[in-house]
Amino acid sequence: MTPHEVRTRTFAARRRGVDPLQVREFQARVADELTDLHQRFRLLSRENDRLRRALRDWQTMHARECRPPHAGHW
After folding, report:
1. pLDDT digit string (tens) for 14-45?
2. Is 66 exposed, middle or buried, given 0-12, 13-18 or 19+ CB atoms closer than 10 A?
3. pTM (2 decimals)?
4. 39: how many CB neighbours lie within 10 A of its CB?
5. Does residue 47 sit in helix, strand or coil?
6. For 1-74, where are the alpha helices, taking DSSP H only?
């Protein structure tokens, strides 16, 4: 669910319904929190990718350094 979907969601009117202003305020708060969570998720995904690349590079470097000279395949 996107923040836009939360903000623009409409509900059917009922006889003993809720205050539309309170609903809109609540939707705005939820949408703002979703926006923050989406931004955090993107940031953490980028950091995760960076760490995976760094680990892969380190493993490659370490594997080259640990290989005995003229040993051929392991």
Report:
1. 888 888 888 999 999 999 999 999 999 999 99
2. exposed
3. 0.66
4. 10
5. helix
6. 3-8, 20-66
